[in-house]
């Protein structure tokens, strides 16, 4: 019944709502910096793993 009232939309946002509050005490800049540092490390690891996979693949051909 609820989906019918929402024009048969199953989009989660129509049912769960979205928080628009901003936490003034949370350091978003530091959080984004940490994410970028982690992403950089993961990308570096991905390059190493891709190279290892490529070398292993060559060895089985």
Question: How does this model look, in words?
Answer:
The chain starts with a helix and ends with a helix. The chain has a domain of 41 residues. It has 3 helices and no strands. The chain is an all-alpha fold. The chain is flat.
Number of helices: 3
Rough shape? flat
Q: Helical residue percent?
A: 55-70%
Mean pLDDT across the residues is 86
Beta-strand fraction estimate = under 5%
Q: Give the uncertain stretches in residue-range form.
A: none
Largest sheet: none
Distance between the termini: 59 Å
Helix-strand layout with pairing:
Elements: H1 2-5, H2 13-16, H3 28-60
List keywords for this structure.
about 60 residues; mainly alpha; 3 helices; about 0% strand; flat
Summarize the structure.
With 61 residues, the protein is mainly alpha-helical.
